[in-house]
């Protein structure tokens, strides 16, 4: 086992990072890019482990078995900070804390490493806070930024970073990983990998959660019953409900656990009114949880629309002559019937409507239900 084992279908990236970990071409700032599910953060984590690996032999670094590798993979190493946000954006105060952390010398490893998993979720003024630190880092500090594409990061930042471009791995590689790492039945793993369109994290959730597979199938089948405006409105409401329920299922329990832990840390009384100082901290936690819930619903809704998009992607593949494998292979007969009743031009227009809705929901303050109702009407 090595730290590179989970990077399925990324041979070129692994070779590039291995070489750098061995001391050839190592630089102080890296930008990991690739579509969602390609493993950007996993690649950065593996690279961080290889750089601080305890092995004396350079060629063996990234062993995945030494204390340094294990603690970095477990995100508990004192010299490696992982920064991700469950809110809409990374705040400017959080960026300033990163800069302060980056200025410290490593305490036990070779390098102080800052992994920013959501570099695309920083406003321009927030990113500018990092610019000086990335441009002129302290001698033993390495920055690793992750984003969907280079265009999602300010040009002043990406020009100072070495690019690492990942791609979505083949579905077969994702299925093999699920079988090997998680012990998933091969048939279930294959179906989950196709349904997730090679997104490793989503494939794992689909493989382990039958309810998630059923919710996805319900989403994908919606166009088969879309006959009029009333059906479009009902579909929009149901899509939003599916996305909200999926997001809230993980948020509610976590919110309660966080609040209980905070009250215990503060030494709050078991009953009665909280002191003013404690009320302020609880209020701050609740505000953070609300922001996180908003992002969770937005992300879940975007994924739901991506599942819907896969239906029309398969329809288009059939209309164009079945050049590649279908995502929703189990619906082939229904997809073929649907494809026979329209044209490729119509299918492309419908796919464009879904992508417009996704963009409105993730980048503007539009009410999600209104955006989805408008999209659904375009699909009739």
TrEMBL record:
InterPro entries: DNA_Rep/Repair_Clamp_Loader, P-loop_NTPase. SUPFAM superfamilies: P-loop containing nucleoside triphosphate hydrolases (SSF52540). GO terms for biological process: DNA-templated DNA replication. It holds the Pfam family DNA_pol3_delta2. This is DNA polymerase-3 subunit delta.
